Amino acid sequence: KNRFGATDEIGVFEMADMGLIEVVNPSALFLNTEGERAAGAAVFAGIEGSRPVLVEIQALVAPSAYGTPRRAVVGWDSGRLAMVLAVLEARCGLGFGDRDVYLNVAGGLRVTEPAADLAAAALASSALDVALPQDCVVFGEISLSGDVRQVSRMDSRLKEAAKLGFAQALAPSSAEAGHGMKVHGVARLADAIRRIGDGDWDGRK
């Protein structure tokens, strides 16, 4: 509660035996850093208020058992999901017409910013059954033409990711490397999907 400060800042607290305790690193609440990352999971470097927060976005693409494929989303806008699926089909050649699609933002967080569009990498990861690297974060807005647009505070997102041990990012082509992070800049969504499918994270393919 801050009566005289900015209204776009968030504080995260944990209820303990002695009362509320500030969570210094909220990103740790929303991430699973143990083991290998499964296909269909992508870590999104987002902004909540004025604070960068990393959260895992999970996707499952499975054959539909009924005539009408199901679309279920928790923690993200369902209209935005429909748009991203349409772009993936029209611009990237991925088919979802006979598949159920489930998308979940881990930890109960609600994501609203367009920068989460490139978390569609999680959808492609599940559809192709190829996992993203454990040390990779993603962010970027997707247009209807399939372009990946730059988003605000890209440096802050990379800085937060580096602080949590991430070493690379899948981001708009205008993002600049920094804080020890390797940035895989993509101008179009098709480029991002191709990189995921090829597993080309070291630039050797």
Number of helical stretches of at least 4 residues? 4
In whole angstroms, the N-to-C terminal distance is: 51 Å
Oligomer: single chain
Q: Strands across the major sheet, in which order?
A: 5-6-4-3-7-10-11
Class computed from helices, strands and strand pairing: alpha/beta
Radius of gyration, rounded? Answer: 17 Å
Question: How would a textbook summarize the main sheet?
Answer: 7 strands, mixed
Helix content: 10-25%
- Mean pLDDT across all amino acids: 86
Q: What's a quick, concise take on this entry?
A:
The chain is of the alpha/beta class. The chain has four helices and eleven strands.
SSE topology sketch:
Elements: E1 13-16, E2 19-22, E3 41-48, E4 51-63, E5 71-74, H1 78-92, E6 99-105, H2 121-128, E7 136-138, E8 141-142, E9 148-149, H3 154-163, E10 168-172, E11 182-186, H4 189-198
Parallel strand pairs: 3-7, 5-6, 7-10, 10-11
Antiparallel strand pairs: 1-2, 3-4, 4-6, 8-9
